[in-house]
Design goal:
It is built from seven helices and four strands; from the N terminus they run H-H-H-H-E-H-H-E-E-E-H. It is of the alpha+beta class. The radius of gyration is 19 Å and the shape is elongated. The chain has two domains: about 60 residues; about 80 residues, 3-Layer(aba) Sandwich (Glutaredoxin), CATH 3.40.30.10. The structure holds FE2/S2 (inorganic) cluster (FES). Belongs to the complex I 24 kDa subunit family. It comes from Caloramator fervidus.
Length: about 160
């Protein structure tokens, strides 16, 4: 969940910007700090940074979207990564991804409404011998079939 309207968080960010304002290349550390505080760089946050740091919005947006470490939308409590690398793909990873999307009622790349899960497709996770593979947080699940999904999700829905 993104608490993007919380005043105290904006105050914390304002203070940080004031400290960094005169540094060359301040935008990058400011964006990192904003992401740390808010968990995302939503439009409101980018606008705030642009105004406070006196950097054009186009530049703030450009840097925010260029680096994969930044996310414009808040991530869920649990991040599910389904491998779509070759070994997993040929063993039915797409069906795993589809089942997750259906069970959670969320599109790939998005977060569930309750903020619990973010569903992502990813490249090889380095566990091809266990294909098809997914990770929830740091935990690896291998040799999956779509019918495994509801039970696995239950562990996280408690
Ligand atoms: S292709 Fe999926 S873990 Fe390597």
């Amino acid at each position: 969940m993104c608490y993007c309207d919380e005043q105290s968080k904006f105050e914390e960010l304002r203070k940080f910007i004031q400290e960094k304002r005169n540094d060359k290349g301040a935008l990058m550390p400011v964006l990192q700090k904003a992401q740390e505080i808010f968990g995302c760089l939503s439009y409101d946050i980018q606008e705030f940074i642009s105004k406070e740091l006196k950097v054009p919005m186009a530049e703030v947006y450009g840097v925010s979207t260029f680096y994969s470490q930044f996310t414009l939308e808040p991530k869920g409590e649990h991040i599910i990564r389904v491998c779509l690398g070759t070994a997993c793909y040929v063993k039915g990873a797409q069906a795993i991804l589809d089942r997750l999307s259906k069970e959670l009622n969320v599109e790939v790349g998005k977060t569930t409404q309750d903020g619990k899960f973010t569903l992502e497709a990813t490249r090889c996770l380095g566990a091809c011998g266990l294909a098809p593979v997914m990770m929830i947080g740091e935990k690896v699940y291998g040799r999956l079939i779509p019918d495994d999904i509801p039970n696995i999700l239950k562990e996280y829905q408690k």
